[in-house]
Design goal:
Elements: E1 3-6, H1 13-22, E2 27-29, E3 36-39, E4 66-71, H2 74-77, H3 82-85, H4 91-112, H5 138-158, E5 165-167, H6 171-181, H7 206-212, H8 214-227, H9 251-281
């Protein structure tokens, strides 16, 4: 296999997969393709799949010509990683599963206690997850974030030290170094908005990580310093066009839909107020 790009889930794998395919490499995402793979679980043995389907790629250095480290700041990764961490084959995935289920049950309970539904014209856009609009308390999310940060540390400790580094925070700069190694041009696809994911809990700080788990924080921050990763990174320059799926709606239309829903809610409130005034006058 020509190349294996290893990192963590929620760590830029979809973007990197798009970049490699735009240069003509037939690489897979999570599962190996003819030319290689971009995977967020491979360094620690792949991850589970539904019964009857193929498992994700598990890294074996003997089968790969070039291994590349794809690294994103751990605090950025931990904002969304816990929701997919339970799928990991590593024992930390087993620890994450009951915590994730507890959060989901809490979210459903909160939804059940919510007020009666408003008229359709006053509702917010429908979300996939029952917890998408809820802020999960620290006492529930803290355990998941800790496991996510540990998973980040274990993953990057497992990737070969000599592997070329591709930082999400400096992607365009690092791509100029990595591309020649793969025999590719150091160019990137046309600009496009990076893919965003909902954040359902408060972002941790470095001080909190150090106070909660000093040993893991020391190991993680040593890796951060070694590879020069910066937090709050976004790949804005030269992102590949987003993958289009049935039912996807452009962000501009979603924002317009939200604005229309707010206006309709305001009109309904004004209507109700006028009706109450008319009844008082009568």
């Amino acid at each position: 296999m020509r190349v294996a790009v290893l990192g963590t889930a929620c760590g830029g794998t979809i973007y990197t997969h798009g970049v490699l395919r735009s240069h003509g490499l037939d690489v897979g995402h999570e599962r190996a393709g003819p030319d290689g793979v971009v995977c967020g679980f491979a360094a620690l043995g792949g991850r589970q799949r539904p019964e009857g389907s193929h498992p994700t790629y598990a890294y074996d250095a003997r089968d790969v010509d070039t291994t590349i480290r794809l690294v994103r700041h751990p605090l950025d990764v931990a904002e969304t990683l816990p929701w997919v961490l339970a799928l990991a084959l590593h024992p930390i995935g087993e620890e994450a599963r009951p915590l994730r289920l507890a959060v989901a049950q809490w979210a459903r309970a909160q939804r059940a206690q919510a007020p009666a539904r408003r008229p359709w014209y006053a509702r917010a856009p429908r979300r996939r997850s029952p917890s998408a609009t809820l802020t999960i308390p620290d006492e529930m999310s803290g355990g998941l974030v800790q496991l996510a940060l540990r998973y980040w540390v274990l993953t990057h400790e497992a990737i070969p030290v000599e592997a070329p580094v591709l930082r999400v925070s400096h992607f365009a700069e690092d791509w100029g170094t990595v591309a020649p190694i793969l025999g590719l041009e150091a160019t990137l696809p046309p600009d496009a908005a990076p893919r965003s994911k909902p954040i359902r809990w408060r972002r941790w700080t470095v001080d909190e990580w150090q106070a909660t788990e000093p040993e893991w924080a020391a190991r993680g921050l040593a890796l951060v310093e070694r590879y020069g990763v910066e937090p709050r990174d976004t790949v804005v320059a030269a992102a590949p066009p987003p993958r289009v799926r049935p039912g996807m709606v452009p962000a501009e239309l979603l924002a317009l839909r939200d604005e229309v829903a707010r206006l309709r809610a305001s009109v309904a409130e004004l209507r109700d107020e006028r009706e109450r005034e008319r009844r008082r006058e009568a």
